[in-house]
Amino acid sequence: MGEVRINAKDMPYQVLNQRVRALVASGEKDIILDNVLGQRFIGDGIRGDDVTITVNGVPGGDLAMFMSGPTVIVNGNADHAPGNTMDNGKVVIHGSAGDAVAHSMRGGRVYVRDNIGYRGGINMKEYQTKRPILVVGGSARAFLGEYMAGGLVIVLGVDGVTPVSERGVGSGIHGGEIIIRGRVDPTCLGGGAEQKKLTEDEKKAIRPILEDFVRTFTIDPDPVFSAEYSKIVPASKRPFASKYTWE
Amino acid sequence: MDGSKIREALASMNERGSGEGSGYVAYGIYPDYKEYYALHVFFDNIREHKVPLENLLEKWGMIIHDEQIKTYEQPGLRKVHTPWRYFFRPNPSMMPKSTSPEEDIITSLVMKVNSERNGALIFSSGKNLGVFKAAGWPEDVANFYRIQDYKGYLWLAHNRYPTNTAGWWGGAHPFNLLNWSVVHNGEITSYGTNRRYIESFGYKCTMHTDTEVVAYLIDLLIRKHGLSEEMAVRAFAPPFWDEIDRMQQKEQELNRAIRLAYGPALMNGPFAICVANENLLCGFTDRIKLRPLVTAESGDRLFISSEEAAIRRIDDDVTNIRMPGAGEPVIGRVYS
After folding, report:
1. Which helix (H) or strand (E) holds B301?
2. Which phi and psi angles does A36 have, rounded to 5°?
3. φ and ψ at B38, to 5 degrees?
4. Which of A30, A133, A163, B105 lies at a CB distance of 3.0 to 4.6 Å from A157, suitable for a disulfide?
5. Least CB–CB distance from B323: residue in A37, A59, A98
6. A247 domain-assigned
């Protein structure tokens, strides 16, 4: 089957998302949504590893929430929380995104070419083979990886952009890793977070992710590969054990 | 620009509201009466409550003109009040001790009428501007007032989702006092502290909701105390103490002074706020950015919204799309 296009101009999000679901259910693999403007919940809860939804425009919040398998490509900026509690699949944003990107994400990948807002990767988690990945090409704002319980957040700061320069990085982190190009000013670290230099072996381990990212957005790979990185991890296995009064 | 696109942009975010309150304010809509205060009033009923209000107004000044605000029945909106407008000239000799007698007369009239709750509520009291609001969805409220018939150079619009108090006509945003208008997304959890503080200066909180303290705090800090807009926002959403500790000495002193002098004006909780007066539009969020705010420009126009998509409903050619940082004021000024 070939591609199917929907003109989303002035279409309520309920109608748009019902159509997308119906198309996915009928076996369509390549769905293109034109003139999207503010429609929420696009791609939410849909399944199917071989389905691609292309969003041309600026979608509303909670894009690809609970999604399990498909790829959603956004040609524009995304609003709050793309990849919210996403289970599997891929979200590619050719632009920037709002606050709480990859909120509570539990699997799959979210790629943002430019910048993200506050609380990127908040409450991300992992379980056995499920390990969500958020990669940001530009910069992230405060409280990056707040309450993170698992998964991987990478912020590249391509073109010399400072990846993170605001407070609360890894605030309340108790699992997972935040990898950042260069070094984060220690005053920006949140409670319970610790910064370490990323070793060569660790850098090798993330190389395939970086390769995929620079290929996706045609970014000059050399500065990305040659840069030094830091990782921000929980300061101990249970950094907040003392907070539980019954122990 | 007229209100039709504003309505469209606001309605595109209907998910953010519950149909219990929407409103608009437009600046520049009463050029023929621009030297008079335009008082917009909700009457419970005309027969009982209009004459007492007019007697009070005539005591403090002169009603130049008055008329019913034109409304058009909407199936989705119950008309529980009759909106009325007065063009009013206060008599400055009635407040001889004040340095700004006209504004103080208007403020005290608004506080008196709204706290006495005698079947009249003044919800708009500036010059050459007007608030139009009701308990309903954005489109219904816009159609009720035919908002497209008003042409303003500066607009605020709001769709309410009341969470802590019941929705009602007076509780819809924008909140206005004199030329200040405020719309707000979020919840001011320091409302108790802020309210006690602002009421100690003679303002009275009567709308059963947190946002009105913002309007009064702005009036106090900027109009009465002469702070710049930037410094007022700094008082509302100041830097953290550890950030202040790391500043250069001069900056440190300034920020400490603001926090110490205006501690009770600090607003906690999630908020994104837009404030306007006849000369400016200012948007800012709380100090840890718990609510969204997007700004964009097109030519000499500034847009501030909760969502980029809503801005693009009005103008798809916008540039410089930004999400300002926590507590960072974005200010557009009117040049004529």
Report:
1. strand B301-305
2. -70, 135
3. -90, 105
4. A163
5. A98
6. no
Is B308 an interface residue toward A (CB < 8 Å)?
yes
Residue B328, min C-alpha distance to chain A (Å): 13
pTM for the full predicted model: 0.96
Structure tokens at B115: 């706290």
pLDDT in tens, B242-284: 999 999 999 999 999 999 999 999 999 999 999 999 999 999 9
- The SS3 of residue B45 is coil
Among B299, B285, B297, CA closest to B321:
B297
Domains delineated in chain B = 4-333 (3.60.20.10)
- Section B299-328 average pLDDT: 97
Instruction: Name the closest residue on chain B to residue A12, using Cα atoms.
Output: B12
Task: Quickly tell me which residue has 């506050």 as its tokens.
Answer: A118
Which residues does chain A have within 8 Å of residue B318's beta carbon, measured at their own beta carbons? Answer: none
> Would you say A85 and A104 are in contact if contact means Cβ atoms under 8 Å apart?
yes
Residue A56 placed within a domain: yes
Dist CA A206 CA B188 (whole Å): 43
Chain B partners of A77 at a C-beta cutoff of 8 Å?
Answer: 308, 321
Indicate the pLDDT class of residue B207, thresholds 50, 70 and 90: confident
Contact (CB<8Å) B309/A58: yes
Pick from B292, B321, B325: which is nearest to A80 by CB? B292
> What would the pLDDT profile of A154-210 be if each residue is shown by its tens digit?
999 999 999 999 999 999 999 999 999 999 999 999 989 999 999 999 999 999 999
CB contacts of A146 in chain B (<8 Å) are none
Nearest CA in chain A to B323: A117
Please count the helices (runs of H) and the strands (runs of E) in chain B. Answer: 10, 15
Note whether B245 contacts A: Cβ–Cβ < 8 A.
Answer: no
DSSP state letter for B62: E
Give the relative orientation of helices B4-11 and B138-145 as an angle to the nearest 10 degrees: 160
Flag if B288 and A143 touch (Cβ within 8 Å): yes
Task: Write down the number of H helices and E strands in chain A.
Answer: 3, 11
Domain of A139? 3-242
Number of structural domains, chain A?
A: 1
DSSP symbol at A227? S
Instruction: Name the E strands within A94-174.
Output: 109-112, 133-136, 149-155
pLDDT at res. A238: 76
B166 touches A: beta carbon within 8 Å: no
Please report residues of B whose CB lies closer than 8 A to that of A99: 289, 292, 323
